[in-house]
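About this split. The held-out portion is used to measure sequence recovery: a designer receives only the structure tokens and must propose an amino acid at every position. Recovery is the fraction of positions where the proposal matches the reference. Here is one held-out target exactly as it appears in the evaluation file.
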């Protein structure tokens, strides 16, 4: 069974805005300004686990959220943009191959065969996070998260072999802190962790996911 086939029994846990809850840092809206209303929302259980993960970091270091919840509409836009980048880099690929290659770093809202997909960020269970030091500077991970579109895809992998010792240590530190609180890492993105979604259920051997697609409070439903 692939993780997309895992059933969902949503537990009904609400989304919360970390800007209102406190205790965690956040950066500017990621990718594009349209993400501003959504990106600081996460499921309540995810927020609680982030706080506990942060408490395990070296003194003075804190987690900073790069992105949490992402609407289906924004996911579609980001996926189409990634397809354009892939097609530009590798013009000999077929449309199906472009689609598949784009899924490495962006989850598709719809699979190539037309089946709907539920991207992790659209469940409120996935987060992109980094660590900042006492001075508020992001520690050395070998790259900034925002540079995922310009570095080789392999360099985004959590355990990429061509890293400095410092960057490798920091990526593993983040991984240990997050996994200790029940998160799972998407190994192709050192910054991406999730709890409760299908990918989490698949990696941890659960029979079902506890987070399905969700709407941000106050969001306008699209027809």
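Reference sequence for scoring:
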């Amino acid at each position: 069974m692939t993780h997309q086939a895992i059933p969902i029994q949503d537990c009904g846990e609400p989304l919360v805005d970390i800007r209102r809850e406190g205790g965690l840092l956040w950066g500017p809206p990621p990718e594009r300004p349209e993400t501003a209303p959504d990106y600081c929302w996460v499921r309540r259980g995810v927020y609680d686990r982030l706080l506990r993960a942060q408490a395990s970091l070296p003194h003075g270091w804190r987690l900073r959220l790069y992105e949490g919840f992402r609407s289906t509409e924004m996911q579609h836009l980001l996926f189409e943009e990634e397809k354009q980048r892939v097609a530009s880099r590798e013009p000999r690929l077929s449309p199906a191959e472009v689609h598949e290659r784009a899924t490495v770093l962006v989850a598709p809202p719809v699979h190539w065969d037309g089946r709907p997909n539920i991207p992790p960020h659209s469940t409120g269970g996935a987060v992109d996070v980094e660590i900042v030091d006492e001075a508020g500077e992001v520690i050395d991970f070998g790259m900034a998260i925002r540079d995922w579109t310009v570095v080789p895809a392999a360099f985004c992998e959590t355990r990429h072999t061509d890293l400095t010792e410092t960057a490798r240590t920091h990526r593993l530190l983040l991984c240990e802190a997050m996994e200790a609180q029940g998160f799972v890492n998407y190994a192709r993105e050192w910054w991406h962790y999730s709890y409760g979604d299908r990918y989490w259920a698949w990696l941890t051997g659960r029979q079902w996911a506890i987070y399905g697609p969700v709407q941000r409070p106050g969001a306008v439903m699209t027809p």
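Annotator remark: The first strand starts at residue 15 and ends at 17.
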